[in-house]
Design a protein that fits this description.
Layout (H helix, E strand, L loop, with lengths): L9 H8 L3 H9 L5 H14 L5 H8 L4 E6 L5 H16 L3 E6 L4 H13 L4 E4 L8 H4 L6 E5 L9 E5 L1 H14 L4 E6 L9 H13 L2 E6 L5 H12 L7 E4 L2 H14 L8 E4 L14 E4 L2 H16 L11 E4 L2 E3 L10
Parallel strand pairs: 1-2, 1-3, 3-4, 4-5, 5-11, 6-7, 6-8, 8-9, 9-10
Antiparallel strand pairs: 10-12
Helix pairs in contact: 1-2, 1-3, 2-3, 5-12, 8-9, 10-11
Length: 340
Amino acid sequence: MSDRRKRATIREVAQATGLSPAAVSYALRGIQTSEETQERVRAAAAELGYEAHPIARALARGRTDQVGLLCGSLEDYWQQSLAVGIGRALLARGRYALIVDAGGDPERELALARRLRDQRVDGLIVQPLDPSAALWAELPGTVPVVSIGDALRGGTAQGEVVFDNRRGVTLALEHLRDLGHRRLTVFTSTRASTPDRPADVHVNAEAERLGLRVDVVAVPEQSFAAATEVALRVLDGPNRPTAVFCFADSIAYGVYAATRELGLAVPGDVAVCGYDDHPMSALLTPPLTTVDWDIDGIVESAVQLVVDVIDGEVDGGPRERRVVRKPSLRVRASTGERPG
């Protein structure tokens, strides 16, 4: 038999001290009782091995020290790195990340957001699949919300870490244009339920400005297998583009797999550009040209915003709660001049 001692209860501490359970609770929290009573109760609690249950302690404090992290799809390698970074940054600040995965499903994303709220997380960090959903205009009224990547509907989020997508798109398309490419395919994870995402809008505007012919192709899931399947269909034919621009490095990895299966050379037959600068992208053969958003800076900004809101240290207007990340282009060997 196990010799583990059963957790002592607050009633047992009350019996040992001759106080009521309510008085013991007050004494343990250091309120509404004398210092002498508090010392007597703490001594009895220590002797009995009493420890406050973490859930009860959280309810008493009105805090759980948990921050929900709602990921659009953890099949995306960049989001995996983001989740690891946010989890560690929260832990360094005495908080814990409760990480959930929407699996690329906007309806599941909203259901999980409600569940995290109902579990009384202190705050919520989300990289939304559908930033226009009606829930996002309501949720910040019940739990502090910080969004990453896109502003949420209603503009009521307590914090935003958004990307200068226009600049990121311009860097990628100008780079490919300068290499002589005129016919491009853009792979995006945007769904029918998430129309008019800023990055996609900028692609069309910049393509017209630069005189490029661009076909935007949706990848239904941010998985390696899905990206490979879509890339095979696009690249297997005489009218294939000379360059592709992927709105996630994880999609670009699928493009690499497709080129190998089709016997195409990167960048000799098709140039490839990504959008995340995931650490693995520099290790590919050839290394991937990609737009870098400084993931460490994104993590620091998002975590600092949500912690400040939870601690009541954010009083300013929307602009003071909005962090805009500026991109840079990491030019590597996956992009070269258009074949003659």
